[in-house]
Amino acid sequence: MTQVVATFYKFVNLPDYKEKQASLLECCQTHQIKGTILLASEGINGTIAGSRHSIDQVLLYLKTDLRLADLTHRESLAKDPPFERMKVKLKKEIVTLGVSEVNPNEQVGTYVTPQEWNNLIEDPDVLVIDTRNSYEVDIGTFKNAVNPNTHSFREFPDYVNHNLNPNQYKKVAMFCTGGIRCEKASSFLLKQGFTEVYHLKGGILKYLEEINPDESLWEGECFVFDERVAVTHGLAQGSHQMCLGCGHPINDTDQASPHYQDGISCPYCYDRLTPEKYARQQARQQH
């Protein structure tokens, strides 16, 4: 049965976020929704899947909180259920940067629509930064974008502190999958003294949804955090699969490698495969 996949986030002051957990989980379970929703004092972040009616009901429930009345979401379709269970988690941050004084509810950079994005990133005076992790960047990114080579978003502040000078880079444009990481990154850069900071509204997914492939500056596929693994223009499912040993997206070339074993390892993790882990992965394959 085809599933509707809805992703959403909103930076908003939610001092009572802990009290919202139980009722939100109950609502999702009542409507047979699967996925994950994160709640923190700074806002909400979620990806959920279910039937058309169920998704609509949960979104309506969320918007009964006036602070979330203007919550926007993005949708795509999945042939099979992309999640196994429903979780509503309490967090310190809805996306973890690890810098407590950064608050997107106080300040963020300038939002740039997908239609305006090409002109911005083709400006030679603009430094374009992909704020995602290396394994995401590996399978696709915007033309001429800088890869900070981070393994988690927590490493982004160190990258900025060691590589970017606000006196050298006057204009910085950032992007990420759905907009949440670059929104927080823009708040961080403004705290560091950068003055012209831009970020792609709705992220890569909104760009791929709205921009014609003939006009697109996107190269490759976009990693997504569910069983689809990657999407392309029009949010069609991409060609990548996921290594069950390490979670890295893999393509046909990776699967042709002598280091690839289905369900066990791939060229990105074979050298870290201990005998114990090999045995665990092999046992999992046999079930």
From TrEMBL:
Keyword annotations from UniProtKB, A to Z: Oxidoreductase, tRNA processing
Reactions accelerated catalytically: uridine(34) in tRNA + AH2 + O2 = 5-hydroxyuridine(34) in tRNA + A + H2O
UniProt GO BP: tRNA modification
Classification via Gene3D superfamilies: 3.30.70.100, Rhodanese-like domain
Domain Rhodanese: 122-216
Function description: Catalyzes oxygen-dependent 5-hydroxyuridine (ho5U) modification at position 34 in tRNAs.
Entries under PANTHER family matching the protein: RHODANESE-LIKE DOMAIN-CONTAINING PROTEIN 7-RELATED (PTHR43268:SF3), THIOSULFATE SULFURTRANSFERASE/RHODANESE-LIKE DOMAIN-CONTAINING PROTEIN 2 (PTHR43268)
Name of protein: tRNA uridine(34) hydroxylase
Organism expressing this protein natively: Aphanothece hegewaldii CCALA 016
Name of encoding gene: trhO
